[in-house]
């Protein structure tokens, strides 16, 4: 089957891409309005884009009425946000924070989430998140109905239980992070792994 996207509706383009580009990591974004109302919401159009500088990108689509989602409005207004990563134990709370609550509702309180003050930005981080990244906006770009947010990571927090300072390694499986898959509610665990060693040209051609 082939789709010329010029002839495919935006809804179907979304369905095709979001069902195929999986699993996606979830940025559980905490942000704060200029008036100080705290917000939390999950965004799976998210990834790391580089380490020098350390950058993350998030795609925030507009609401059906064309207005920004609260997270996008907050990020544009304040230029700050925190990306919290989602472990399986937090999945229910993460899902609750995707609720379409009015802008004045503090979704962090709504979901009963404990927070820790951030070091370099105003929005707090989620205490139970295995990893939280305090970010400052480098750029936002309005592309069609998407706000592409590019943020620079200022502070990286990882739970002590998941970090070995001697080896300078994160124990990824121990964090039990979940990813977004297909449909309205399917998620993946980071289990059932397999390993591949990266090839080198020297090995490939049998050089000594
Ligand atoms: C797991 C998950 C991932 C989501 N990813 C995105 C996304 O990448 N972009 C987006 O615009 N909305 C995404 N949503 C929907 C938003 O979370 C939802 O619209 C939410 O109400 C936005 O909240 P806000 O207005 O407080 O920012 C996702 C929802 C879930 C449950």
Topology diagram in text:
Elements: H1 10-20, E1 24-25, E2 27-32, E3 38-43, E4 46-51, E5 54-61, H2 70-78, E6 80-85, H3 91-96, H4 107-110, E7 115-116, E8 125-126, E9 131-143, E10 146-158, E11 163-164, E12 169-170, H5 172-175, E13 178-180, E14 187-189, H6 201-205
The chain binds flavin mononucleotide.
What can you tell me about this protein's structure?
This protein is an alpha+beta fold and 208 residues long. The chain has one domain: Electron Transport, Fmn-binding Protein, Chain A (Pnp Oxidase, Chain A). Helix content is 19%, strand content 36%. The chain contains 6 helices and 14 strands. Strands 3-2-6-9-10-5-4 form a 7-stranded antiparallel β-sheet, covered by helices on one side. It has a 3-stranded antiparallel β-sheet with strand order 1-13-14, with no helix packed on it. Strands 7-8 form a two-stranded antiparallel sheet. The longest helix has 11 residues. The N and C termini lie far apart (46 Å). The model has no long low-confidence stretch (mean pLDDT 96). The structure holds flavin mononucleotide. Flavin mononucleotide (FMN) binds next to strand 3, strand 5 and helix 2.
Short key terms for the protein model shown above:
208 residues, three-stranded antiparallel beta sheet, Pnp Oxidase, Chain A, binds flavin mononucleotide
Termini gap: 46 Å
What do we call the CATH topology?
A: Pnp Oxidase, Chain A
The share of residues in extended strands comes to 35-45%
- In total, how many beta strands? 14
Hetero groups: flavin mononucleotide
H and E string:
HEEEEEHEHHEEEEEEHEEH
Low-confidence stretches: none
Number of structurally distinct domains = 1
